[in-house]
Amino acid sequence: MARRPNTFLQGAQAALIGLCTLSLLLAVVDSRDGFTGGLRAAAGSFMSPLQSAVNSAVQPLTSFFADWQQLGSRKQQIAELEHANGALRAQLQLTQNDARRVAELNAMLRAAGTAQFKMLPATVVAIGASQGFADTLLIDAGTMDGVRVDMNVVSGAGLIGRVVQVWKRQATVALITDPTSTVGARVEGSGQIGFVSGLGRIGTLQLQMLDPYAPLNVGDRLVSFGVAHGIYATGFPIGTVTSIRGRAGTSTRVADVTPFVSMGALDLVSVVIAKPRNDPRNALLPPVPQPVAPDTATATDSATAQSDAATPTQSITAVPKATTNGKVIG
User: Fold this and answer.
1) pTM for the complete prediction?
2) How far is CA 86 from CA 73, 76, 93, in A?
């Protein structure tokens, strides 16, 4: 019986022989210059657009995975930067607070030196209502520091109030804006006497003159005026008259007064341990703001220009511009 030929084996052998022949031909062709380079260039021209398209499609995905790997480190960097920023802000705030406190203390020292009184610096712990009073401060000084009831409390800007309660290390101060407060006052310039009362509003006081016919004007400044056996010392700045109501000669004539001290922004204050030895009069009042003078050079130049326009042959002389150049203390 004759054996049938194995067609699968024959096909494999033919394919192997074909591949070997093709490899030999490619080796021969590659050894020649010119043809291989052109073939490679053509292949590159054909594949380049495909490669660019593939890169464009794959790049976002690659970047996403790269960013995902770096996400943890970036979060840490952001947290570190935020922490550093917060520390810098806190340091800046402390620096500003320290500068403000130094300026306030210097102002109080100048006042104590001018009026010759002893003071005890203290820090405001709290502000608000207290038993029997609407406007009070709590300060961190008490009997251990020499604080007593009815001692005056001031800042560098002026009178704040008086001590009404005192403990070992703290004391309560009733502000002059409290409805129970009445302070003798003297008008700068005229020397007329009146009484300033609190209205229970932090930024407003009310003045009533002792003499209903006494001259009084908006802008007049007031200092405290001591009375016999009174609580408040003489000469501490109180505030400025901002409005007047009622006619002179009537008991209804009163004036609104804005305190020199911003009662709602107090931080460092001073308890007056010993009152001024002499009446400082108006020495503790802040300097009067001076009106801005017109530029004399500008006015002169304008007048000269007008004169020159009237007489073109007149010579002009240049005018130079004007220039202007347990811590008891006391």
Assistant:
1) 0.61
2) 20, 15, 11
